[in-house]
Specification:
CATH superfamily: Thiolase/Chalcone synthase
Largest sheet: 9 strands, mixed
CATH architecture: 3-Layer(aba) Sandwich
Strand order of the largest sheet: 3-2-4-7-1-8-11-10-9
Number of helices: 13
Number of strands: 11
Radius of gyration: 19 Å
Number of domains: 1
CATH class: Alpha Beta
Structural class: alpha/beta
Strand content: 15-25%
Order of helices and strands: EHEHHEHEHHHHEEEEHEHHHHEE
C-alpha cells in the first residue's frame, strides 16, 4: 500500500450563500484545491453530501461536479453517511490512492441548507436517525443530544454552565478564521444566557447549519515529499439508535476507529498536537475527548475547564472554530476539519496557527455516533 499525501486544500467561507447553487459551491472549493496543488487533471472524484436530494432536488452530485469542473470521463460518485459523509469520502479517496488504482483524487464535501424552511431542513437531517424507532416519536438530533447531555450531567454531577469552555474556546478560535460563520468571541455570561433549544442544550451548545464546501487533492506521498501525509485512517460503526447502546455515554465507534488509526500511525493520544473533533453539540466534544483517550469517562468537561483544550493547552481542539463557530454544513464538515488540520501542519493557519504542530487528528461523526471516521495527519 502506498502512503498518501494531501497536496491541495480548498475551502469557501461557511455562509448563507444565496447567490450560489450547490454545484457552484462544490466547484469553487474543488478548483481552489486543484489550484493549490497545481494539478489540472484528476483520476477520481468523491463528493460527500447528505441532503441534496431533499433540500436541493439534486442527486448525481459526482457527475454534476465533474461536469462543471470540467473533468469529463473521470470516475465520480457521491457518498453519504449523514454528518460523517465527508470523513467517509476521504477514506475512499485514501484507499484509491493507497491501492495504486489512482494517482490524483479530489475529495469534495458540499452542503446547501439555508434556503429551505427550518422544519424542512430539520426533517432532512433527522433521516439519519432510526426511521422506525426514533423518528416516529418526534425526536430530532438536538433533542437526542439533549437527552444524552442530561444523562451525562446526572451521572457525573455537572451543571450546564460547566460546559461553557467548549463554546468559549470555539468562538475565540473562530474569530481568527476568515472562513468561519461566526467570528465574535463569547463570554461565560453570554453562554449562560443563551436561548434554550432543547433542555439543557442552549443556542451556544449547538452548532449552526450553513452553506459550504471544502476539498482536498490527494496524491501518492512519493510524488509530493513536502506535503502533509495521512498516517492513520479508520472508520467504525455503532447502533443507529442511541437507546440500543449498552452505554449511551460512550462513543464506541469513536473508540474503535481511533484505536485503529493510532495503531496505523504508531502513536497514542499523547502524541497528538491538535484535535479537530466533531463538536456539533457541547456534549459530543466531551464524549469525543473521552473516547479518544484524552480524558477518563466523565472527565472530558473537566479537561475543558482546566484549559487543556485551548490553543496553548495540552490538546487544542476546534482550532479554527470547529463546528460551533465555523459552522456545520453537514456533508462538508469532515472536509473542513481535515482542511484546517492540514493548514495547521503546513503552517498556513494564519492567526489561528498552533505553534510547532506536527501531528493532527480529525474525527467526523455521523448521526448520534453511528458512523465515526478518524484521520491522523503528519507534517512532512
Amino acid at each position: 500500500m502506498r502512503e498518501v499525501a494531501i497536496l491541495g486544500v480548498g475551502q469557501i467561507p461557511v455562509r448563507e450563500h444565496w447567490e450560489l447553487s450547490i454545484r457552484h459551491l462544490a466547484v469553487e472549493a474543488a478548483r481552489n484545491a486543484m489550484h493549490d496543488a497545481g494539478v489540472e487533471r484528476i483520476d477520481g472524484l468523491y463528493v460527500s453530501n447528505m441532503t441534496s436530494g431533499e433540500l436541493n432536488q439534486q442527486r448525481q452530485l459526482g457527475a454534476l461536479v465533474a461536469d462543471y469542473l470540467p473533468q469529463h470521463g473521470v470516475e465520480a460518485v457521491k457518498l453519504e453517511a449523514a454528518c460523517g459523509s465527508a470523513g467517509s469520502a476521504m477514506r475512499q479517496g485514501i484507499i484509491a490512492i493507497a491501492s495504486g488504482e489512482m494517482d490524483a483524487v479530489l475529495v469534495v464535501g458540499v452542503e446547501k441548507m439555508t434556503e429551505t424552511p427550518g422544519k424542512t431542513t430539520t426533517a432532512a437531517l433527522v433521516t439519519a436517525a432510526d426511521a422506525d424507532y426514533e423518528t416516529p416519536h418526534g425526536i430530532t438530533f438536538v433533542s437526542l443530544n439533549a437527552l444524552v447531555m442530561q444523562r451525562y450531567m446526572h451521572e457525573y454531577g455537572y451543571q450546564h454552565g460547566d460546559f461553557a469552555p467548549f463554546a468559549i474556546n470555539a468562538h475565540a478560535n473562530g474569530a481568527k478564521n476568515p472562513n468561519a460563520m461566526f467570528r465574535d468571541p463569547i463570554s461565560q455570561r453570554a453562554y449562560e444566557r443563551g436561548r434554550m433549544v432543547a433542555d439543557p442544550i442552549t443556542l451556544f451548545d449547538a452548532s449552526p447549519i450553513g452553506d459550504g464546501a471544502a476539498a482536498l487533492l490527494l496524491v501518492p506521498a512519493e510524488k509530493a515529499p513536502d506535503a502533509v501525509r495521512v498516517i492513520g485512517s479508520a472508520s467504525a460503526t455503532d447502533t443507529l439508535s442511541v437507546h440500543d447502546r449498552e452505554n449511551p455515554l460512550w462513543l464506541a465507534a469513536s473508540e474503535q476507529s481511533v484505536q485503529r488509526a493510532y495503531a496505523q500511525a504508531g502513536i497514542g493520544p499523547v502524541d497528538v498536537d491538535l484535535f479537530e473533533l466533531h463538536d456539533a453539540f457541547s456534549i459530543m466534544a466531551a464524549l469525543s475527548l473521552e473516547a479518544c483517550g484524552f480524558a477518563e469517562p466523565g472527565q472530558g468537561v473537566r479537561l475543558a475547564q482546566e484549559g487543556a483544550i485551548l490553543p496553548n493547552g495540552r490538546i487544542p481542539i476546534a482550532t479554527m472554530g470547529g463546528l460551533k463557530a465555523r459552522g456545520h454544513p453537514v456533508g462538508a464538515t469532515g472536509l473542513y476539519q481535515l482542511a484546517e488540520a492540514a493548514l495547521q501542519l503546513r503552517g498556513d493557519a494564519g492567526e489561528a496557527q498552533i505553534p510547532d504542530a506536527r501531528i493532527a487528528m480529525a474525527q467526523n461523526i455521523g448521526g448520534s455516533g453511528a458512523t465515526i471516521v478518524t484521520h491522523i495527519l503528519q507534517r512532512p
